[in-house]
Amino acid sequence: MLKKLACIGFFLLLSSGYVQAVEYKEGVEYQRVSDQPTESIDKVEVIEFFWYGCPHCYTFDPILSKWLETKPSNVEFIRVPAVFRPEWKVHARTYYALQAMGLGEKYHSVIFDAMHKDKKDIYSEEAMIDFLVSKGVNEEDFKDAYNAFSIDGQVRKAIQKVKGYAIKGVPALGVNGKYLVSGTSAGSYENMLRIVDFLIKKETTTAAKK
Q: Which domains are delineated in the chain?
């Protein structure tokens, strides 16, 4: 009887929200990085580092999309295409070109699905152009955006962000220029976002004290 009452009592604590929130440890579930520049001064910046050719990024994408629907209002979310090899620049330039055209969100998941669900071989510039044209993107407009000088700068900036955060693999999440969360340290894709939520609260509290 006493054991049953203890179990009931513990359940009531859980349902009432009295159990202390999970605490994540620096150097265990997330890593501290050398301070990196952020693009927002009044919001907590969260960066997703990804690559279209990465199957893990593809699996993570819908989980992240669901989180984005309810992310805190004081969060600025940014995607950064990782470039670990020269050939990855095709996907980085594609991402930024579509963003410049105002088509980034429309075709982000389309490219992921094509590569991992439909097994499309779209690793070269020519293959990417053919694919996007087949999906309704204007060829000349895309080529102009893809080859724009501004895209060179964005790709260079992305490469610097990857180096600054000391990214070893993708997907990975950077928080406010200070912290890095990876699938390896978090243990699961869902837990990556729980840790990010923890860090957002940490940064929000720190900012409020200043």
A: 22-205 (3.40.30.10)
